[in-house]
Design goal:
Strand content: under 5%
Shape: flat
Oligomer: single chain
Distance between the termini: 32 Å
Length: about 55
């Protein structure tokens, strides 16, 4: 996964930030469709690693 903000200048990131609107609405787990917090199931992300060949 690449960071979409990696190649952006601080001014470009600030422009995105300035477009955000605070609504004051409360969002809960059901709205997001996920479980959050210490009791949440762990999320496993596949990662590719290179290891030396042991002959």
């Amino acid at each position: 996964m690449t960071d979409p903000f990696h190649d952006m200048s601080p001014d470009e990131v600030a422009k995105i930030k300035d477009r955000l609107v605070y609504s004051g609405e409360t969002v809960n787990e059901e709205d997001l469709g996920i479980t959050i917090g210490p009791g949440a199931e762990p999320v496993f992300v596949p990662r590719s690693i290179k290891m030396p060949y042991d002959a």
